[in-house]
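Consider the tokenized backbone below.
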């Protein structure tokens, strides 16, 4: 009996039809299955009713933009989302991350760069195989099951985006120790830390709001100036 390998399904939402076609052709050449749509409403419909492994959303679109699509995706679940942002537009970038995007790529970008970033996110979102040697991580009320990509706080499910999960796992594995932003970027985002990049800070801020504070009111994730972040070990 012949078996077929299931292709990773990418939802691409960009109103630049020519650019989207170029990205689609390259991604399909690299073995992905791509569904490209060119407006926010179509993107929302595909995100809700389609069966996609990751969404790539252009922020700047007329009508419903990439942020609007992202909000609808996050209302439905934790599908990884990569945002396409205008080069140097920090505002859109930060808003996208705060609303739950996993990462961003500034435009213009090459199809090769986009593909590499998609693979990095998928590798860390559980689409790629995980090591069977990974075991449960427990830090106080926090429990993490890396193989299942499942997290609980005091026995209740903790809803995280794929990137938030990655970053919290890295911090939990080194609970009580400072983890540098370089390490967090490489292990959590799957890319080197870029100068002036605030992605880590935005994701950590979101995680903080999802974890209950310490009894004395302090956050459980401590920022250590010029060094990185530390998950406090009780």
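A designed sequence for it:
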């Amino acid at each position: 009996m012949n078996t077929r390998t299931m292709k990773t399904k990418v939802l691409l939402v960009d109103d630049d039809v020519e650019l989207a076609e170029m990205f689609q052709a390259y991604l399909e050449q690299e073995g992905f299955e791509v569904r490209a749509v060119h407006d926010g409403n179509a993107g929302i419909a595909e995100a809700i009713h389609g069966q996609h492994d990751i969404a790539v959303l252009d922020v700047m679109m007329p009508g419903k933009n990439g942020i609007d699509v992202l909000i609808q995706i996050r209302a439905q679940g934790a599908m990884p989302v990569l945002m396409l942002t205008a080069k140097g537009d920090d505002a859109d970038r930060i808003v996208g991350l705060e609303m739950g995007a996993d990462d961003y790529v500034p435009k213009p970008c090459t199809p090769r760069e986009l593909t590499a970033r998609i693979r990095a996110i998928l590798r860390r979102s559980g689409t790629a195989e995980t090591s069977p040697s990974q075991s449960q991580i427990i830090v106080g009320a926090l429990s993490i099951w890396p193989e299942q990509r499942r997290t609980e706080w005091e026995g209740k499910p903790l809803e995280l985006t794929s990137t938030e999960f990655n970053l919290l796992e890295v911090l939990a594995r080194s609970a009580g120790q400072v983890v540098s932003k370089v390490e967090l970027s490489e292990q959590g985002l799957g890319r080197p830390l870029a100068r002036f990049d605030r992605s880590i800070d935005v994701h950590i801020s979101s995680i903080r709001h999802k974890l209950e504070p310490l009894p004395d009111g302090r956050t459980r994730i401590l920022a250590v100036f010029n060094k990185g972040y530390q998950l406090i070990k009780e």
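The chain has eight helices and twelve strands.
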